[in-house]
Design a protein that fits this description.
single chain, alpha+beta, 6 helices, 8 strands, GNAT_dom, GNAT family N-acetyltransferase, Acyl_CoA_acyltransferase
Length: 174
């Protein structure tokens, strides 16, 4: 699989040339809460990760793709299928648009539609799930728009600045 193409964006596999882009995202403390990151990543570790990004989802149990604009070919975000479980035909899904200026323009919706279609049609998954902070209104709206249903609340799940926040579990069953 090389790309999944939508109207204004496409999703593609990560390339070695994405080192600085992935490095910037992984080391942006403002998104650590949604990515469940606690420490910075070195370029060395990200380079190693990118060198192994060729592994297919059955081997790596994860598929991370760059979200790119069709008109400029610029990578503006990442979308992941993680905790891939082929026995039970399910995976988690996460999305991040790196620059706030690219948010609220339909890019996330288009990327999520592409990955849902890929997961259900190509991977033959039965369900997808998403873990969303209870105060992440944009993600809550996005996933709900695609039919994800809230199935549970993980109380005091995420610690941010010595305060605990709930995390909501959403599920989409084909």
């Amino acid at each position: 699989m090389t790309t999944l193409t939508g109207n204004t964006i496409y999703l593609r596999a990560l390339e070695p040339e994405d080192l600085e882009f992935v490095y910037a995202i992984e080391n942006n403390e403002s998104v650590w809460e949604v990515s469940n990151t606690q420490t910075p990543y070195s370029r060395f570790l990200i380079r190693q990760y990118l060198e192994n990004a060729h592994q297919d989802i059955y081997e790596a149990k994860q598929l991370r793709m760059a979200i790119c604009l069709k008109n400029s070919f610029e990578a503006i975000g990442l979308i992941d299928l993680f905790d891939f479980d082929p026995k039970n035909n399910r995976a988690g899904v996460g999305i991040l648009i790196s620059n706030e200026s690219n948010r609220n323009k339909g890019v996330g919706s288009e990327a999520l539609a592409l990955i849902i279609n890929y997961a259900f049609e190509q991977l033959q998954l039965h369900q997808l799930y998403a873990n969303i902070g209870s105060d992440n209104e944009i993600s809550l709206q996005l996933f709900t728009k695609f039919g994800f249903q809230k199935i549970g609340t993980k109380k005091d799940w995420i610690k941010v600045n010595n305060n605990y926040k709930d995390e909501l579990l959403f599920q989409l069953i084909k």
